[in-house]
Specification:
Oligomer: single chain
Radius of gyration: 16 Å
Strand content: 35-45%
Number of strands: 11
Structural class: mainly beta
Strand order of the largest sheet: 6-5-4-3-2-1-11-10-9-8-7
CATH superfamily: Lipoprotein localisation LolA/LolB/LppX
Length: 223
């Protein structure tokens, strides 16, 4: 398993860390939001106002079982990739990158595979050892998640920071929500080497049927 990040690995980590939480059209396709994180607090020290805000986000996300839409990803070097995503909770998600990218990412409830369609290769990771284990869980509770290290409230935004150790190494996820609607506006992933990747989505359709065949992993070609 890799312990350092190539640009491709950073892109994969950035996408898989956050996409399963995204609820609705939230961010313009032009550029990522510049974050100004506050000091925040750990979950055990949440104020009543912070706990209420996170509770509202929990209720919204837990009402969403399937989702489909488009995504745009901004890499640490300023590179941009895009494509379509499909999700079915618990445990299943598919990211189909548009050309010229050759990536295709699938989680089938047990594993996550990173496929290179040009080279016809696949790298397989246990779902339980990736950031998606939290994001694709059957029930999300940000008020009780031990990996939440800070929560900051601003007039229009809520930022939540999670830190996790995964098969990819240690990473930090900063999620930015609209304070009124609870929509996820952006997530930014900082990997073990300090590189940031930001992701946004649009044209999102929640709670509509999603073809189960999209989440099939062909294990006969796993290298």
């Amino acid at each position: 398993m890799p312990t350092t990040f190539s640009p491709t690995r950073r892109a994969v980590l950035g996408l898989t860390f956050g996409l399963a939480l995204a609820p609705t059209l939230a961010l313009a396709q032009g550029a990522p939001i510049k974050l100004t994180p506050g000091a925040g607090v750990k979950p055990a020290g949440l104020t009543a106002q912070q706990r209420e805000a996170l509770g509202q986000i929990n209720r919204y996300f837990n009402s969403i079982r399937t989702m489909a839409g488009d995504f745009v990803q901004f890499g640490p070097d300023g590179d941009k990739a895009e494509g379509q995503f499909y999700m079915s909770r618990p445990g299943k998600i598919r990211f189909v990158y548009a050309k010229p990218s050759n990536l295709d990412i699938i989680a089938d409830g047990m594993d996550v595979v990173v496929r290179n369609t040009r080279q016809a290769t696949q790298d397989l990771y246990p779902l339980s050892k990736t950031p998606l284990r939290f994001l694709l869980s059957d029930h999300i509770d940000l008020t009780g998640e031990a990996n939440v290290t800070s929560v900051s409230l601003e007039p229009d935004l809520i930022s939540v920071v999670l830190e996790q150790s995964t098969v990819f190494g240690d990473g930090r996820l900063t999620m930015i929500f609209d304070r009124k609607s609870s929509d996820l506006r952006q997530w930014t992933v900082t990997d073990a080497q300090g590189y940031d990747t930001a992701v946004s989505i649009y044209n999102v359709t929640p709670n509509q049927p999603v073809d189960a065949k999209l989440f099939f992993i062909d294990r006969t070609i796993i290298r």
